[in-house]
Known about the structure:
The complex is a heterodimer of chains A (291) and B (180). Chain A is mostly helical and 291 residues long.
Amino acid sequence: MELLCCEVDPMRRALPDPNLLYDDRVLHNLLTIEERYLPQCSYFKCVQKDIQPFMRRMVATWMLEVCEEQKCEEEVFPLAMNYLDRFLAVVPTRKCHLQLLGAVCMFLASKLKETIPLTAEKLCIYTDNSIKPQELLEWELVVLGKLKWNLAAVTPHDFIEHILRKLPLPKDKLLLIRKHAQTFIALCATDFNFAMYPPSMIATGSVGAAICGLQLDDGESSLSGDSLTELLAKITNTDVDCLKACQEQIESVLVSNLRQVQQQQQQSNPSKMVDELDQASTPTDVRDINL
Amino acid sequence: MPSEHVAKQKRESLLCTLVGERRIGEQMEWRPVKANRVRRNLFGPVDHEQLQQDFQHMLRSSLEGAQQKWNFDFLRDMPAEGLLQWEELQSHDVPAFYHSCVVGEARKPLKPLNQGIVKEVKAHHFATVTLTENPKVAKKMSGKKSQAGKKQRQTSFTDYYSAKKQVKTNTQAAAKNLAF
């Protein structure tokens, strides 16, 4: 008797739907409704007393790490951050409850987007068991109420394919561009400065930063500098100057994140990396950074 | 196994890879990095009592809000005084989608707004309540049913859900007035 063992990708996913992706009405609808899902205000100024911007960055970094370790779908993290920001914009929250809130937001986003969602137990373990599954489930109800059950928020990811298909990109680079754009979107979600930006602008800026970073402008003049920005701005009806500013901001977030990572590496391994740190302290171009 | 190649990828490796790829313009293999402890407590010990208090407070206020909006007492599962008229339907009169069900372990019931009438009940064979379009046709649910006869149920997600859904399908006019 012969035994056959086939490895199957455990995650079954639907094929991209051309009816959704190749129809401009979908893009226009996304652009019309995206503002509804933005947080109501810049909450560090007007709502929160106990929570400060650096704490949001801490919880966001942790959430991103959990999502990566659990190999969540790319949208889960930005969506969870959208829930977190919208909740914090209406509910003054204690610092010691912030991680619970982050876990609840991942729990909800994962349930909405994934075929096999994160479990409450797993998320509690990631908080080093500082919260209990029962508490997570209770707060899920509270968060849902405050979000008015509007969970299907528009995220930058919803725009990526719509933008990419309208650009004259080399087919073989498409995967890489998409991946870089997704990384930028995740980076933006960790940074509060982007929390009030419309998702379409973050998506457009991220695609722009990805293309510029990969220096794809060799043969294709429409992919270089200003003409790329204009092309991108037209696709999502974004103001050209806003888009430029957004793209620059994304680049600078990348630089500051890299510097942070290098500092951490240096702290844990002080003997080396001194040269690299010097180099990173005055970056002129991200491409010049040596790692 | 292929998953070993795609070793755990953290923020730093994500960024390193991105920058590396930017320099050479080609996709690189993920570099495994030292295991950074993802499992961690960020802001110190959690005051569980405080957490429970905050939860009770917030859920209560959201239930009060919902009660005002729909003039329905979600805790006792009874209509309250207000603009909307509620009519009781048997559960077999509504699509199965609206039937209540409890998956897994039941939630602890929330303490009601005014203490004293709390009853721990796990049954879920309650009547489904729906809105009707014409107040004249609607049977008014007056105090006919004694409270003791009607089991109180725990709050669950469906409390909010079924109410909203049914307003949408049954009373467009009411839904317009109560835009959410």
